[in-house]
Each structure stands twice: as structure tokens, then as C-alpha cells.
Amino acid sequence: MARLLARRLVQSCLILFGVAAITFVLLYALPADPARMLAGRSATAQTVENIRRELGLDQPLLTQFLAYLGNLVQGDLGRSYAQKTEVATLIAARLPATLTLMAAGIFVEVLLGLTFGIVAALNRGGALDRFVMASAFVGVSAPQFVVALLLLYVFAATLSWFPMSGYGTAAHVVLPAMTLGILGAGWYARMARSAMIDVLNQDFIRTARAKGLSGRRVVLRHALPNAILPVVAMIGIDIGQFMGGVVVVEAVYGWPGIGQLAWQAIQQVDIPIIMGVTLTSAFAIILGNLVADLIAPMIDPRIRSH
Amino acid sequence: MFNRWLLTTTTAAVLALSALSAKAETPAQGGEIVVTYKDDITTLDPHIGYDWVNWSMIKSLFSRLMDYEPGTANLVPSLAESFEVAPDGLTYTFKLRKGVKFTNGREIVAADVKYSIERAVNPKTQGPGAGFFGPIKGFDDLTNGTSEVLSGIETPDDATVVFHLSRPDATFLHVMAINFASVVPKEAVDAAAGDFGKKPVGSGSLVLKDWTIGQKLVFERNPDYFVKDVPHVDKVTIEVGQEPLVALLRLQKGEVDIAGDGIPPAKFLEIKNSPDGAAMIVDGEQLHTGYVTLNTKVKPFDDVKVRQAVNMAINKERITRILNGRATAATQILPPLMPGYDKAFTGYAYDVEKAKALLAEAGHPDGFETVLYSTNTDPQPRIAQAIQQDLAAIGIKAEVRALAQGNVIAAGGTKGEAPMIWSGGMGWIADFPDPSNFYGPILGCSGAVSGGWNWPWYCNEAIDKRAAEADAMSDPAKAAERQAAWGKIFTDIMADAPWVPVINERRVVAKSLRMGGPDNIYIDPTRVINYDAIFVKP
């Protein structure tokens, strides 16, 4: 276990380094010049040069990257070009909102997805199965902004059940979480369905039924734990995606998450923020997968023996 | 007889008074308002902030030596009580208003003005507005890093600031009114440790009380502001990250007072035709011209006939329809509100046949292929497509290249790169209401450099000389002469046709029915939203 952990930690550092290097090179390969974006339209050539020098953008790419890495290992993500504020401060300020939406979104996704997936698997080939799978298909293909605006219009603007925009109370999180849940549940439903069908066809389930166990007990106690592994792995990936921000949903509901920060930073070519958000997201994906890998043996003892 | 006289005069007086009271509502004091924007506020540092969202907030958070009367382009002394201009136009002496305090309680002295301007110019500040202070003596030394101060600013006593210029500059008083000239307390800048933009301290009408990053900013009235009864509102809450469409729904429900991003094109007609539409929409002219640049260094646009032909080929009226009529067709470089605008000048009329003939004369009877750059946010690509169709009608096949703003700016500033650029989304909105502001960086020789904003790479030495002469006329008595000189410069540039002036776009702001005051304080030519002047109806 400890060896596995150590190996995964080394891997994680290498992955983070790779992400940092690739993102850095890509951002600096862009034709857009951050110094000129900052300098604005009235600036003289001298002003642009001065800003470029002050930001260190006149240095060779490798020097800049090494300086960035040097700060990074000390936990310093640098300062935003446009805002001059520490990137760590900006990300930290948006972390609570991002984590709240992530938790609520994944909860709705998994709840809806598992329920529908199991129902579909138990009614395999039936009308209910076809209905669930069709809904899942619509769910995964629907554009985020359409679902978001639809829910907002019906439940906030018309019925006034929930606030239209903002962050702070439990009521604020319902609509954004529902939007993400509806969109993401389709994936979980399809995955849960096929995993359940696999498991339900196996001998031990037949044995359980033969023993005379109730249908509910067979499904929840014997089949579900065996079918849930891929779902856990998928949650690990989802965590990373949510940490990178869900730009459209955040924008529609005025949710102060990391996505809005990243989106605006991209518009302004604010490289330190883009780097910071990318690394945070990559770190979260690695962490999510690591946790998923650690949880898997607890759910399925067979993995432990490997 | 006497009775009749009495009757007529009284009636006249009553009529006059009622007309007066109907016209100018007396602003009521008090009230808390909510304003929304999509983008987060980048910074409130007056020497760094340079977008149209933070511009109005910085205006009200800080004071400057000069300011404008609300809703107009008329310069008035502000932090300065009075000023004197030497006859040669090289020395400006300002007397400070006495007893004005920063919101940290310290009285403002002349040294604060000197420190603030030096901070705006100092390369370490990374401020975009440094160049505005170019005429002040010692500017080059501070910019090159050979000095930490501007030798041209003297403070003989706490109430007097003297500026020595290296060349006469008729726009200098305007420069003293732009945000970059805001006065800040050094101790607060030092205490903020590099993040003054999030912890601003000024002496304006509003004070920043709270900033929750990514969510909202809370401004409160500065009770000690030196202008009596200003501002009128007690509290302004800026909510950021608000999608314009949602902001509009919230405005209709009464949760929001000003939707700062205006009305999304798709909703404009619906709102306009709704019962309260007229009272909700503020639709005002701004100092803006949207244009297509024609790169004079790229074939075949190096031929003036080709540039003139393109000027005649574009159907500007159709483009105003794409914007639901929120723009008017432009005839010239200056927008109509700008001093120097020539009402009599009609520019190049839309005439496809004449354009074709001119193109044939230039040796391109079958047209040619070229590239038209545009930013990629709606409605700009649609406008670029309309221009593309108009060009096709005279045989020019233009490929539309819609890119992120930064990439278009980079292409424009690279020599020989972008033959044509539609300026939409990046168009020139004046920093201050003076015609010279539409020349230097965007049409003057100094801007036609790598990384510059003179995207047509237009450089006419004779015009450059006339521009310098006009800017040297700093004697206020010559203001009219100077304005006429500038007006002529811009209409003469159109003979060379480096631009197609396409539209003058109006700004649209949506406000709730309880907000009072004339439209020109919601779209103030120098401030956008004038937080000092807006008020809540009693």
C-alpha cells in the first residue's frame, strides 16, 4: 500500500510538471501579446516595452519557465497580470463555491444516474429501459446553456422557487447542481446500466436469488457493490473536471467559481491565472483518481490481492 | 390692464416654473442600488485600470485636479481650486482646494499630486496610461529608469503644483482629468503591498467598503466628499459574474437597478416594445467610431483608388440594422459628439457602380482576394460577413478571419500582416473629449510601428506636422481655431482613405424604473455611468 502510494506520488509530480510545461509553451506560442493587452490602445511603444520588461516577458522562454517552476515549488503561483493580485488568493477565493458546486453536482449526477441505470438494467429491453436510455441520450447531448437557461426561466424567473443568480445559501445551489446533475446523469446511467447487466448475469446473483433473498436485497447488497467500481472511477475524473470550472453553468447562474476566473483570464491573456487554474485542475484530477484507486480495494476485495 | 398684466405674467411664470421642474428633477438623497456586470472587476488602481467597467468606478473613487460637468464634455477644476496657464503654454500652475481629505483622514497636499503622477508614469507600476504624461519635463528619464521622479513637477508649497512641459500641449487639462491622473495617498499604496487595486484609498465621492472576490463590491457614500450633496446614493453594490440575459430578468423583477452590460441583441426589440421599455432603456451616444482599416502597406490597398472604392462599397445602413438600429452610419473618423466633427462632410456615399469603376481604374476590374480580420464575439462576425458580402458585390473576395481579440490586435500591429480589420469590439472610444485623441496612436506616424494601434499603417508626414501644430495651440483663446484645424485634419485624412468609417455605435444601459436623472449621466461621455450624479427617485 505504502509502495503504491509512493509510486503514485512520484507519477503525480511528473504529470504536474508535464502539464505545467505543455501549458506554458502553448500559452507563450499564442500570437497574442500579454504586454500589449495590458498596455491598452493609448500606450506608446515605450510603455509596452516597459510593461513587458516588468513582467519578465522579455526573457527567453526557458528562463521564464524555470523562474515559474522555482516559484511554484515554493507554493507561489505568481501575480495576475491584469489584477496584480496573487493568483493563489484569486483561486482560493473561488474555491468554496467551486467545491460546493462540485459536491452538489456530483451528488445529483450519481443519485439520478444510479437510480435510472439500475431501473433500466432491471427492465432490460423493456419500455422503461428504452425510455431511460433515450432520456440519458438527450441528457448527455443537451447543450449546457439550454438546460441552464430553461431551469432558470421556469423555476427562478417564473415560479420564483429559487433565486436567479448568486451564491451563499442552500437555495442558490439547487438550480446549478440540477443543471449539472441532469447533464451528467446520462453518463452515469449508461455506465451503471451496463455494469449492472454484467453483474446480474453472473452465477453468484443466481445463487443469491436461489437462496430466496428478496429482489431488493439481491440488487442493493449483492449486485450494486460489484457494479459500482466504474462509477467510482468516473467520479474521480469528474472531480477534476469540476475543479477546472464549469464555465457555462457558472456564467448563467452567476456562480463565483473557478470557471469564470479562467474564462476572463483567457480573454485577457492573463497567463499566471490560466497556469494557476490549469495546475489546480490537473492536481484535482490526479487527487481524484488517486482517491478512487484507494477506495476501489475497499469496495472490491479482489483488487486488494493484486 | 394691471389685472391682465398680472394674469399673463403669473401664467407665464407658472408655466415656466412647471416646465423647469418637469425638465430637471431635483436629485433625491439616499437609496441603495444594485449594478451588475458580467466580467469581474479587474482592478480599481487608477493608474492601471483601463476598461469601460472599472473606468466609472475609479472616476468616483478618486479625485483629480480637473473633472467634467456631469453628462458633458466641459472641463472644470475639481481638486484644483483654480489654475493658470503661462502664455507660452509650457507652465501650468494649480492651486489646490483647501481641506480636502483622503478617506483615510489625511489632508491632500501638493506632494500627493506629484507622487501620483510619477506613480502613473513609473514603469514599475505597469500602467497603460504613462504615455499621456509625455509632455511633462523629465518624462523620458523616468520612463528609461534613469530617474525616479518627474523633474517637471514642482511643489513650492502644500497648496501649489506647478507643471513644466517640454512642449505645448493643448490637451493637458484633459490629461489632468483622466483616471491616470487620480491622486492617491502613498502610505496606502505602500500598505497594500502591490495590490492597491483591491485596497484602493482615494478622495472621491464613493468609498470601497467590501470586496468579495468574484461576487460583489460594496461602495458607500463618502460623507466628507468636497462637493456638497454628492453623491446622491448611499450605497452601490456591484454584482459581478452576472450573465446579461439573467441580469435583465432580475432587473425586470426589481432585484437589479442598472444592468451595466446593456441589453443582449436578441432581447433588445422585445424590451424596447414592452410597456416599460422606453423608461428602462438608456440609449446614448458615446465617443465611438467603428471602422475597417485598410492596410496602406499591403497590396493592393497601397493604391488610394482601391481604398476609396472599398469606402464606397460598404452598405453602412445595413450594418446599423444588424445592431437593431443602435448605431448610425458614420461619414468620417470623428464621432458626432466630438468637438471638430464636420456636419457638412458627407464622406464617400454608398455607390456600388462607382466603386466598381474606381476598382477597374486601379487595374482590378475583376477584383482580388484578401483577408478581413474581426473579433469572434457576437455580433462582430456577423458584421464582418455583411462587409464580406458588400465587398463581393464589387468583386473583392475577402476571407473573414474571426479570432480572439488578442490575436486580432497582434495581427494589426504586425507589419504587412492584416490587409483589413473590422474594429468592432475593439473600436476607438475616446479617452477624453478632444479630437487629438483620435489621431496619434491610431492614425499618426508614431502609431505605425510594430505593436502599435495604427492598423492601416498610415503615415502622412504633412498631416503629422499639422497635428503637431494644432496640439501646440494651447492658448484657450485659440480653442475654436484649434478645433477647426483638427476637424480639417480628419476630413483631409479621408481623401487618403486609410479607414472606412462604418458606424457610430451608441451604448445601451438598462435601468430600473426607480432610477432618476437624465440619460446622459447613465452614458456620460467621459465616465459611462456617473455614480456621482445618478439617484433613486423618492
UniProtKB/TrEMBL annotation, chain A:
<keyword id="KW-0813">Transport</keyword>
<dbReference type="GO" id="GO:0005886">
    <property type="term" value="C:plasma membrane"/>
</dbReference>
<feature type="transmembrane region" description="Helical">
    <location>
        <begin position="99"/>
        <end position="122"/>
    </location>
</feature>
<comment type="similarity">
    <text>Belongs to the binding-protein-dependent transport system permease family.</text>
</comment>
<feature type="transmembrane region" description="Helical">
    <location>
        <begin position="167"/>
        <end position="189"/>
    </location>
</feature>
<feature type="domain" description="ABC transmembrane type-1">
    <location>
        <begin position="95"/>
        <end position="296"/>
    </location>
</feature>
<feature type="transmembrane region" description="Helical">
    <location>
        <begin position="273"/>
        <end position="296"/>
    </location>
</feature>
<protein>
    <submittedName>
        <fullName>Peptide/nickel transport system permease protein</fullName>
    </submittedName>
</protein>
<dbReference type="InterPro" id="IPR035906">
    <property type="entry name" value="MetI-like_sf"/>
</dbReference>
<keyword id="KW-1133">Transmembrane helix</keyword>
<dbReference type="InterPro" id="IPR045621">
    <property type="entry name" value="BPD_transp_1_N"/>
</dbReference>
<keyword id="KW-0472">Membrane</keyword>
<keyword id="KW-1003">Cell membrane</keyword>
<dbReference type="InterPro" id="IPR000515">
    <property type="entry name" value="MetI-like"/>
</dbReference>
<dbReference type="GO" id="GO:0055085">
    <property type="term" value="P:transmembrane transport"/>
</dbReference>
<dbReference type="Pfam" id="PF00528">
    <property type="entry name" value="BPD_transp_1"/>
</dbReference>
<feature type="transmembrane region" description="Helical">
    <location>
        <begin position="134"/>
        <end position="155"/>
    </location>
</feature>
<dbReference type="Pfam" id="PF19300">
    <property type="entry name" value="BPD_transp_1_N"/>
</dbReference>
<feature type="transmembrane region" description="Helical">
    <location>
        <begin position="12"/>
        <end position="30"/>
    </location>
</feature>
<keyword id="KW-0812">Transmembrane</keyword>
<feature type="transmembrane region" description="Helical">
    <location>
        <begin position="227"/>
        <end position="253"/>
    </location>
</feature>
UniProtKB/TrEMBL annotation, chain B:
<dbReference type="InterPro" id="IPR030678">
    <property type="entry name" value="Peptide/Ni-bd"/>
</dbReference>
<dbReference type="InterPro" id="IPR023765">
    <property type="entry name" value="SBP_5_CS"/>
</dbReference>
<dbReference type="GO" id="GO:0030288">
    <property type="term" value="C:outer membrane-bounded periplasmic space"/>
</dbReference>
<dbReference type="GO" id="GO:0015833">
    <property type="term" value="P:peptide transport"/>
</dbReference>
<dbReference type="InterPro" id="IPR000914">
    <property type="entry name" value="SBP_5_dom"/>
</dbReference>
<dbReference type="GO" id="GO:0043190">
    <property type="term" value="C:ATP-binding cassette (ABC) transporter complex"/>
</dbReference>
<feature type="domain" description="Solute-binding protein family 5">
    <location>
        <begin position="75"/>
        <end position="447"/>
    </location>
</feature>
<dbReference type="InterPro" id="IPR039424">
    <property type="entry name" value="SBP_5"/>
</dbReference>
<feature type="signal peptide">
    <location>
        <begin position="1"/>
        <end position="24"/>
    </location>
</feature>
<keyword id="KW-0732">Signal</keyword>
<keyword id="KW-0813">Transport</keyword>
<dbReference type="Pfam" id="PF00496">
    <property type="entry name" value="SBP_bac_5"/>
</dbReference>
<dbReference type="GO" id="GO:1904680">
    <property type="term" value="F:peptide transmembrane transporter activity"/>
</dbReference>
<protein>
    <submittedName>
        <fullName>Peptide/nickel transport system substrate-binding protein/oligopeptide transport system substrate-binding protein</fullName>
    </submittedName>
</protein>
<comment type="similarity">
    <text>Belongs to the bacterial solute-binding protein 5 family.</text>
</comment>
